[in-house]
Amino acid sequence: MKNNEHYVIGADFGSDSVRVVIIDAADGTVVSSAVSYYRRWKDGLFCDPKKNMFRQHPLDYTESFTEAVVTAGNEHVDVMKKVRAICIDTTGSTPALCDGEGTPLALKEEFKDDPDAMFILWKDHTAISEADDFNHLSHTWGKEDYTQYLGGTYSSEWFWAKLLHVIRSNDRVAEAGLCAVEHCDWFPALLCGTTSPKAIKRSRCAAGHKIAWHASWGGYPSEEFLDLLDVRLSRIRESLGTETYSSDTAAGNLTSEWAQKLSLPAGIPVTVGAYDAHIGAVGGFVDEKVMVKSIGTSTCDIIVGPLPAEGGAEVLVSGIAGQVDGSVIPGYIGYEAGQSAYGDFYAWFRDLLMWPLKNMDHDISEETVEKIEKKVLYELEQRAADIEVTKDSPLALDWINGRRSPHADQMLKGALTSLTLGSDAPAIMRSLLESTAFGARAILECFEEGGVQVDKIIAIGGVARKSTLGMQILADVTGREIYVTDHDQAPAIGAGVFASVAAGLYDDVKSAQKALCAGTKRVHRPNKAVAPVYDELYARYKRIGALESSIRRG
Fold this sequence. Notes:
By secondary structure, the chain is of the alpha+beta class. The chain is built from 20 helices and 21 strands. Strands 15-16-14-13-19-20-21 form a seven-stranded mixed β-sheet, sandwiched between helices. Strands 3-2-1-6-12 form a five-stranded mixed β-sheet. It has a three-stranded antiparallel β-sheet with strand order 4-5-8. Helix 12 crosses helix 18, helix 14 packs across helix 15 and helix 18 crosses helix 19. The radius of gyration is 23 Å and the shape is globular. The N and C termini lie far apart (58 Å).
């Protein structure tokens, strides 16, 4: 590092909360951290799981971020004075419609309780038919195929599909929505006072992976293309501009108002934002042939590769969730894939088992119920570890929230098969752990069939750290060693990497990675003795998956 006594802040906006970490920019030491849970989201407001509708109010983001920064800095007044930059990552795609000034509609009095005026969380799947329309048009209109750098499929989890769904279903919001913004673009701009559509710096990560931006066609899908979907999309396109930026670039400088609120120096750079998995991959030490799996409620799999030689064509990888120059590390192509449910699958099973305790009259205290709920997955995993896997073991299909990769299809459903009267809760728990590992194996095969080699897997995220059996099964099913990082703050550390570069403390991302990124907590090595059984179960998994696909898509 070029100087001493410098600190940076990384803020990681997850699905349920924001975590803020204050990092010593010399060596990556975490000085302090704090987590703040979104109040409205925690209360279940503006969401309807039965409709796959998940919306978040922008005030949840502003209030929780403020609380987390203030809490983290409360006992570190001197350190806060030496903070040199801030970097923010968010889940994605998480867009919101805005007025002409770039203000999310939910912040206006007339839309404060309208879910369609809020940020649409990544796992909202209300836009399946709109994604189908985008794909059909892109594949058949005879001009540019706007899915070619997105694995060949545009997802209902992404920007254009979500906004098209809102525009089609809510005329009042559609009329007021003159532009749109991703959460990872809006929040840095908010801190810098640059939320005007003409002033905001758009994330290369978000634009390339979710908004179908590509340099080869000069930005976003053409006005002609979007008009064929809905003419109201074209004004949104116009508001986006054409330029995109990587997260080692400053989006602007912290305003005096925010500096006072957060007890930070005014004018420090705030970097261009990006998605949590991509910045988390940097914090997990992603590299060529090194995949970082961010394993939490869902997964995101990130790896980088070299740019094509001068004059050479970029090799397209079919079935993944996108490949974008500079979306992870500047100077490399960032590749993304993932699973729409991982930890969420286990949580679904936990909630299923907890139903009687939560919904029936009984004499058990609420405190006891909460204790049981916190322990049930751990206890199930301990019992599941003692079960011998056989070719007749229960088998699950992990598409309970649709399939993100390979080949996104949110119409697909989960399944449980090969059950008998002897199939108890631990056996089913093991089948869920195995199913998510099978989904991960399918993604690895998709990458390698497309020419992207994966020699090492680094696992980050809450599930990776907590589920020892899950990570061992992942190693056994994929036949690869799984390296689990030694702390759970890889996204915030990755944000610290970018903040340090933007502040001029390091020359580039790789130099900052070497100084700041964490090491390995444990390594799970594949058990070769169970490989033949898992090969057979995986073959059954693919046959059942093919049946599900044929049922859902006719």
